[in-house]
Amino acid sequence: MLLVLCVDLDDDLGRKTGFSTPVIGRDPVEEAAVALATEDPEDSDVNVIFQGLHVYDDLDSRDESVEVAVVTGNEDGDVAANREVGDEVDTVLASLSTAEDVTALVITDGAQDESVIPVIRSRVPIDGVRRVVVRQAQNLESMYYTIKQVLNDPETRGTVLIPLGILLLIYPLALIGSALEMPGFVLGTTSALLGLYLISRGLGLGNRLDTAVESARRSLYAGRTTLLAYVVAAALFVLGGVSGMNELEGVQEATTGEVGAPVMVAALVYGSVQWLAAAGVTTSLGQITDEYIAGNLKWRYLNAPFYVVAIAIVLHAVSAFFLDLVGISYLATALTVGTLLGIVSTLAFAVVESRLEESDDDPDDDVDTESHPQPDRA
C-alpha cells in the first residue's frame, strides 16, 4: 500500500481550522483542505493537501492500493515539531488495516517541511518526495506580492528586516565626527530613518503600538481607573527624577572633591524615593479598584500598597545613612519597621482570605426545627 503523506510542519491546519490531526482518509482530508482554504486561501499547505488528494485520485483510478493522510507538527520549533509529526505518523500507520507492506509518498511545500523526512523514514519506507510549487509564484510579475507576503509573516520579517535596518544604520554612524556636506547629510539621515523603520517593522513595534492604543481606548471608555492611575504615576515618576537630580546637585555642591558612585546613587534615591513610592501606591490602588469593580478582587491584592511603602521606608533609610543624614539606630529602626510592615500585611490578608474561603466552602448546618407528633403512651 502506498501512503500519500501530506506534511504540515507548523500545524497551520490545526491552528487555523481546529481540525484534530492526523486526518486520515480521502473524505476527511478533502474536508480539511476545504476548511483551510476557506480560512486562509493564501496558505501554501492548502496546495499540499490538494496535491495529496490529486495523487490519491490518480492512483486510485488505476486500482492501486493507496491511502491519504495529513500529519502536522507544531509551532514550537523544529525538534518538537518533528517529534509531533513522528507520533502522528505512528498513529496513521496503526490505523491502516492492511496486510501489505506500506510505503510513503511525502508531499511538502518547501525545504523546511522536508527536514522531517528522516523522522518519517525511520517509521516507514519512503518511495518519493514531492514539493508543491505554485506556478504563479515563479513569474516575475508576482515577485512584489511574494516579497510583501514574506515581510508580513512574523516568522520571517524579523530575520530579514532587522539585519537590513542595522546595516542601514551603519552608514550614518560612520559619518559621526566627520565634516558633513549637504549630500552626505541627506543620505545619512535618509539611511538612518529607513533603518529605524525596518527595525521597527521587524520587531513589530507598529502592531504593539496599535494594540496599546486600542487597549488605552477601551480602558477609557470602560471607565477603568488604572488608566488614570498610570497617568498620575508617570507624572509622579518624572517629578521623582527631577527631585533626585536636584538632590544629587545639592550633594555635589556641598561636597569638596569627587563624589563617589555609592553617594551619587544614594542622593538620587533619597531625593526621588517618596515620589516613586507615591507612584507605586497610585498604580496599585488603581488596579485594586478595577479588580473590585470587576468582581475579581482577592484580599492578597491589598498587599501591594503596603509592600511599596515598606520598600520606600527601607530605601529612604539606607540612602539617608549613606548621605550621613541619619545614624545607625535610625537605619535599624527603619529596616525593622519596613520588614514588619510587609510581614504583618501578608499574614493579615492571608488569614482573612483563608477564613473567608473556609466560610464559603463549609455547608450551612441546617437544623430541623419542625416538631414531630409524639406517639400516645398507653
From TrEMBL:
It comes from the Archaea. InterPro entries: DUF373 (IPR007254). Residues 358-368 have a biased composition (Acidic residues). The keyword Signal does not apply. Residues 369-378 have a biased composition (Basic and acidic residues). Keywords: Membrane, Transmembrane, Transmembrane helix. It holds the Pfam family DUF373. The keyword Transmembrane applies. The chain crosses the membrane at residues 158-176, 182-200, 221-239, 259-281, 301-322, 328-352. Residues 357-378 are annotated as: Disordered. This is DUF373 domain-containing protein. The lineage of its organism: Archaea, Methanobacteriati, Methanobacteriota, Stenosarchaea group, Halobacteria.
